[in-house]
Write a structure and sequence with these properties.
single chain, globular, 7 strands, alpha+beta, 4 helices
């Protein structure tokens, strides 16, 4: 009697599919640690804080189907130099985003574009994520981190004259 030959449950193609899946996952996750701000050619506002006289803040909701509610308009222009400069000092004082793997809360796609200018000269566009890791891009060559700076959201909220200037105001509330 001949021994029975075992049939393999793994085909050679399965191994390749697993390897490609792992590589694809690594490529997809590599974008989560983005630390380099895109080069807009415009200078950082940090060297010109005393001259800043205008700030335009615009909210973007990447997932409008979530129906988050906010207590302030999606577009706010601030022309009081003291308030603009206070927000700019808070932005420029943020620490660098840590390198390596970090765990962040859920990112609901709420972000703010901040345009700062002095005497008509516009500086680099700054993007602030209000949810997730609270990453800030555009202040310097590497990303900054708002989540570890408790004074940042109140400074930005005070510049916008919000009634409750904290991160919750910028994150919005869910209708649920």
């Amino acid at each position: 009697m001949m021994p029975r030959r075992r049939r393999s449950t793994c085909s050679p193609l399965r191994g390749w599919r697993v390897a490609l899946s792992i590589i694809a996952m690594g490529v997809a996750l590599a974008g989560c640690g983005d630390t380099v701000a895109p080069d807009s050619g415009a200078p950082s506002p940090c060297g010109s804080v005393p001259q800043l006289d205008k700030m335009v803040v615009q909210r973007t909701d990447s997932f409008p189907q979530n129906h988050f509610r906010f207590d302030f308009p999606a577009l706010v222009t601030v022309t009081a130099p003291a308030r603009v400069q206070g927000a700019a000092r808070a932005l420029c004082g943020l620490p660098a985003m840590p390198t390596g793997v970090i765990n962040c809360p859920a990112d609901f796609g709420i972000s703010y574009s901040v345009e700062l200018s002095a005497g008509g000269e516009q500086f680099a566009l700054i993007t602030v994520d209000a949810t997730g890791c609270q990453t800030v891009r555009g202040v310097r060559a590497t990303a900054s981190w708002a989540a570890t700076s408790p004074g940042f959201w109140p400074a930005l909220g005070n510049a916008l004259e919000l009634a409750h200037p904290d991160n919750a105001a910028f994150r919005g509330t869910s209708p649920a």
